[in-house]
Amino acid sequence: MSDLSALPAPSGLLSNVLRFVWGAARSTRQPAAPARDRADQRQGHIALVGAGPGARDLLTLRAVKRLQEADMVFHDRLVDPEVLGFARPGAELVFVGKEVGAHAWPQERINQVIVAEAARGRRVVRLKSGDPGVFGRAGEEIAAANARAIPVEIIPGVTAVCAAAASMGQSLTERGVADTLVLATGMGQKGDPLPDCTRLSGPGTTTGFYMSVRQAQRISDALMARGLPGDAPVCVAVEVSKPGERSLRGTVSGLAQLIRDNDVRGCAILLVTWPREAGATVTRAAPVAADLPA
């Protein structure tokens, strides 16, 4: 092989051409964009993630993956702090919890901010207790994302009614006893009448009531007006899968007293199974006084 060092050096003209080509190539290279600029340039994304009832080991694998990928996590009041430990280091955690009478983060503001961050190219997780699609106002957040053409997905979570039944060691449905499962809430949108949350309850049903502790007497009266015997069993699951978890059992007629005696407040699920043999028909009763808006 010939010795390259023995070759003559490039002539002045050739050297100038090489320098021109090299300089042109360097000028076409773009400097690396700062991290925040790269985030602005990429496609943003919103994941509505179900955090389950509380225990971190009840999250799905996909929920954990989205948390580990997120740039920002907007989380509810009922999300257990241990669940937030799945977020990747450096992710921004934003509390957007709402309580009755204290909405520092109204839903409209939440919609706006999660969409705005995703529009900047950030991977956003909206972390909700339970399942996003069960009384989680997911529809409003999906609509806000769609209006800006932001990709959005739902990651299901273990909803509180399922977790409540599991903690009590009972099935929500059973052949010959209850072949229909109803999920209802005792609370409605501000300014609207309270919902008729017992309208689908009847023989052969199990009804799980969310956000209904303050409506216990109204629900009890409405169920009995529909024909459910007052001595029918009822379960109250408090702080399911969390350190303060409690399981209470009583009767439909004594539901409100059971809640008062045990100082139940806030996060609880009411479970009522109406066995098929407890009544053959359900008559549509006129609203009782307790059914009317407070």
From TrEMBL:
Tell me a Gene Ontology molecular-function term this record carries.
uroporphyrin-III C-methyltransferase activity
Answer whether the UniProt record assigns the keyword Methyltransferase to this protein. Answer: yes
Q: Which UniProt keywords apply?
A: Methyltransferase, Porphyrin biosynthesis, S-adenosyl-L-methionine, Transferase
Recorded coiled-coil stretches: none
PROSITE patterns to which the protein is assigned, alphabetical: SUMT_1 (PS00839), SUMT_2 (PS00840)
What family does this belong to?
Belongs to the precorrin methyltransferase family.
**Name listed for the protein in its UniProt record:** uroporphyrinogen-III C-methyltransferase
Question: Which species is listed as the source?
Answer: Tropicibacter oceani
